[in-house]
Design brief:
DNA polymerase, domain 1, TIM Barrel, 2 domains, 13 strands, binds S-adenosyl-L-homocysteine, binds iron/sulfur cluster
Length: 389
């Protein structure tokens, strides 16, 4: 069982991570980005300019609770220090390159980062309550070519850094005016994070973990770990670590119940086959009836949507506190699959439900602007080693 990484695996992953590392968060004029630093790193950055640790607490509040990007607006900090901070540091945001609104109110942001690379973020308003989820990207592109996923056709350009990951959420808060007003009242439209955008979050674990710790910090953005869901295609050893260290909700992209088919749809299955994946789900620490693991299952016509497969699915996940999210396949230009028929979806959902698992069919959102699950992709490409594009 792959409970721990071997040293060889660890060094291979580290070498790969360095190759795809985000650029250093430093501007051309030498000022350093503060967003994305852990609390400890923020304390160290301030110590380096001779400022005591309590300043980090003040700054943290302004940056992550109030959403302030200008040191001059930090009223609890004296003017000379505001100026000093502005000499050394910057509080940045990814730039909004484009913003598109679907007829169903879903919005897709294309964010541009300091090096010009781009990733997409989707805001999905709740249909009933006055709040919604922000779907964050963790990588530009993806290494894992799943056959039905548009992002998978974009080779990995690079990992996103903590500032870029939590920055997508913060920029969305800017866009919706979601920071607390001076009176203290905060509209709470953006109350949930789903790591289901571009990329495989567990192949960029350190950066994702730093960003999520910032999002969960009670003195800043303050989202509960129950409001954060990390979706993985099944990087088994990292699931253990994420469970232990972050304890957020887990969603697993299952999509097939037999290894031969899953090998084809989700090629990572050749490395971490279904039995290992399910075992990792069984030991995922936060799973309980109140906090169930979500199994995502994209319904592909004639491929994985038979009644026999529904029965096999419930047998596989028996005993796991889980729900099954049936996702109608969202087509994209050049995709090879067709969505399952409504009847096949209903039959499948009924079998799963009768076995005692909630099996909501995920209503596609933002399809008209290619913002639905698996439709994200940007024009960013990896610069060749010689720097020419
Ligand atoms: N890499 C992670 C998270 C991003 S993908 C993962 O694979 O889990 C988010 C979800 O969208 C996954 O469940 C993925 O399998 C699903 N998905 C990908 N392409 C899709 C498509 N064309 N239609 C519907 N869902 C899709
Ligand atoms: Fe990557 Fe997830 Fe798409 Fe697979 S489904 S290619 S892991 S983003």
């Amino acid at each position: 069982m792959s409970e721990a990484l071997t040293p060889a695996e660890q060094s291979r992953i580290l070498a790969k991570a360095a190759l795809f590392a985000p650029p250093a968060p430093v501007l051309e004029d030498g000022r350093r980005e503060l967003v994305g630093l852990s609390r400890e790193a923020l304390i160290a950055a301030l110590a380096a300019i001779g400022e005591p640790a309590f300043r980090a607490k003040q700054l943290w509040h302004w940056i992550y609770h109030q959403g302030v990007v200008d040191f001059a607006r930090m009223s609890s900090i004296a003017r000379p220090l505001q100026q000093k901070l502005a000499e050394y540091f910057v509080i940045g945001r990814p730039a909004v390159a484009t913003r598109q609104k679907s007829h169903d109110a879903t919005e897709k942001f294309l964010f541009r980062f300091r090096d010009g690379q781009e990733a997409e973020t989707v805001y999905i308003p709740d249909r009933v309550e006055d709040r919604g989820a922000v779907c964050l990207s963790s990588q530009i592109g993806c290494t894992l070519s799943c056959r039905f996923c548009h992002t998978g056709t974009q080779t990995l350009v690079r990992n996103l850094g903590p500032a870029e990951i939590v920055g997508q959420f913060m920029a969305a808060r800017d866009a919706y005016g979601e920071w607390p007003s001076p009176k203290g009242d905060t509209p709470r439209l953006l109350s949930t994070i789903v790591l289901m955008g571009m990329g495989e979050p567990l192949y960029n674990y350190e950066n994702v973990a730093t960003a999520m710790r910032i999002a969960m910090d009670g003195e800043g953005i303050g989202l509960s770990r129950r409001r954060i869901t990390l979706s993985t295609s099944g990087v088994v050893p990292m699931m253990d670590r994420a469970g232990r260290e972050l304890g957020c909700n887990l969603a697993v992209s299952l999509h097939a119940v037999r290894d031969d088919l899953r090998d084809e749809l989700v090629p990572l299955n050749r490395k971490y086959p279904i039995a290992e994946l399910i075992a990792a789900c069984r030991r995922y620490p936060t799973a309980s009836n109140a906090r169930r693991i979500t199994f995502e299952y994209v319904m592909l016509r004639g491929i994985n949507d038979s009644e026999a497969e529904a029965h096999e699915l419930v047998r596989l996940i028996a005993g796991i506190p889980a729900k099954v999210n049936l996702i109608p396949f969202n087509p994209w230009p050049g995709s090879q699959y067709a969505p399952s028929s409504g009847a096949a979806l209903d039959r499948f959902a009924r079998i799963v439900m009768d076995a005692g698992f909630a099996s909501p069919v995920r209503v596609p959102r933002g399809r008209d602007i290619l913002a639905a699950c698996g439709q994200l992709r940007t024009a960013s490409r990896r610069a060749p080693a010689n720097g020419a594009i």
